Fold:
Amino acid sequence: TEHVKLDNMRKEFVADVSHELKTPITSIIGYADTLQEGEYDRATQEKFLSVISSEGRRMADLVSDLLTLSRYDTNRVTGNITEFDLGELAKKCQEKLEIEIEKKHQEVECYVTADVPPIKADKNGIERVILNVLSNAVKYTPENGNIKIYVGFVYNDAYIKVIDNGIGIPKEDLGRIFERFYRVDKARSREMGGTGLGLSIAKEIIEQNKGSIDIKSEYGKGTEVVIRIPALKKEEEK
Structure:
């Protein structure tokens, strides 16, 4: 029945959260106990404290993402709805990731169609989604790879399309990537950071803004993400 299914999903979710929190907690306790038990030189102390600090931040990120999902689940999100230009926002997001892009010597190009009308939505939420999608593209595209961003307008929707030539997603995983905590390669993605909730949050945000997010991918060849958000009609514009 539906009730049993929901109860199983809840149990699975609690188990996933517990598992995700247990790993950094174990590291923090282990390194803290080791520091307390012996005398270590400055370099070793700094190395241990660095692990404690990064694992603490990882837990903070996870709790923050869980709270965000909880707010969407209970419809307690009161986004600040404003009118803005999707092309400008896409370029701003690209600039925010410039350091990561330069580190990997990637070529990122952004093309904006001139006639894209403004959109009226939760700007901070949409920015969070674009940053998530773009940072995933940077993270899973190898050094010297290519990422293309297209911003355009079709069928009353403004859209942003992000195409990379990265590692791609296996066909059997594509249908599950928006599930909470679902990771295509658990060991690799946990090692590369992230909470496993980014795309779940992205989907919630986009759907609350009456839009859609779709992902196509071919393993070993790359990924294409398309986000669509209803654009303002001419008579709606200020």
In short: Helices lie at 2-37, 42-73, 86-96, 98-103, 123-139, 171-174, 186-191, 198-208.
